[in-house]
Design goal:
This protein is mostly helical. It is 68% helix and 0% strand.
Length: 139
């Protein structure tokens, strides 16, 4: 994405398309998993009504990200479009990548919150061990 594009348009476009294909496949799998009735998000939605709106928001965001990726890919795949605005494509790809990082953080926060609500125990920060519960009770 950051490679020089002027004078190397075809090579630049091919590299970006290759990356978009991989991103498209990964986000398609994530989207399908998020929508699956046996997914973690579905389980949270079913078992923790307080978090349903956030699950719905995550799923909607997955859909919007997928649309943005598919749209960019379609534009770059069009051989008739030789006047690609490279700066615009970079900016849009940057937005998609930032949105994906934000999506991951929101999903992680939701999962940790659901875990705490279900078990009243926090997960350890880095080592995967269980931490103290928020109530201050001794274990």
């Amino acid at each position: 994405m950051a490679a020089a594009a002027p004078g190397r348009e075809s090579r630049w476009r091919d590299g970006v398309i290759t990356g978009l294909v991989a991103l498209d496949e990964a986000t398609r799998d994530e989207f399908e998993n998020a929508e699956s009735p046996d997914s973690l998000l579905s389980d949270i939605k079913r078992s923790q009504p307080r978090l349903r709106t956030r699950v719905r928001g995550l799923r909607m965001q997955y859909g919007r990200l997928r649309e943005a990726i598919v749209s960019l890919r379609g534009e770059l795949d069009d051989p008739a479009d030789e006047d690609t605005d490279f700066a615009d494509v970079r900016e849009r790809l940057s937005w998609v990548l930032t949105a994906l990082r934000h999506q991951r953080a929101r999903e992680s926060d939701l999962i940790y919150e659901a875990y705490f609500d279900a078990f009243n125990i926090e997960l350890g920060a880095d080592d995967g061990t269980l931490g103290d519960d928020r109530s201050g009770a001794d274990h």
